[in-house]
Amino acid sequence: MCLFDFSHPNAPFDLIYRDKQTVGHLLGLAMQSVSNQICVTTILGSSCKTTENQAMLCDQGGLYTLAALLCSQHYTVLMPTLNCIANLAYQNPNVSAMIATASFGGKSVADLLVGLMARDRPSDMQLSSAKCLTY
């Protein structure tokens, strides 16, 4: 359901970031199941449109949740996670610097992204990972 609602251009994106608690609650739900991971990253990635949205998502711990999700074995989790990271970093040097220094499980986010560009990964995943690294 969330995949359809929040991929539509007329979805109410502004509602997500109106209250910090909403973002925090979504991030709290993210690690409960693969389904939640897909839905939360799709919602947050689609609705992260301004520098204020980017800052709120980082302030609420979104970067560390996304870093953890980069370790997923599920393509259906990784692709919206990569999209969310790209939207989080887009035209925001401060957030990009935070991403560059973030890590999960002893690996930097940059190293995790490079790993997703490996030859054995699907080409769209390689391109999405490269996009994240360029921001």
TrEMBL record:
It is found in: Cytoplasm; Nucleus. SUPFAM superfamilies: ARM repeat (SSF48371). GO terms for cellular component: cytoplasm; GID complex; nucleus. The keyword Nucleus applies. It comes from the Eukaryota. Keywords: Cytoplasm, Nucleus, Repeat. GO terms for biological process: proteasome-mediated ubiquitin-dependent protein catabolic process. This is Armadillo repeat-containing protein 8-like protein isoform x1. It comes from Triatoma infestans. The lineage of its organism: Eukaryota, Metazoa, Ecdysozoa, Arthropoda, Hexapoda.
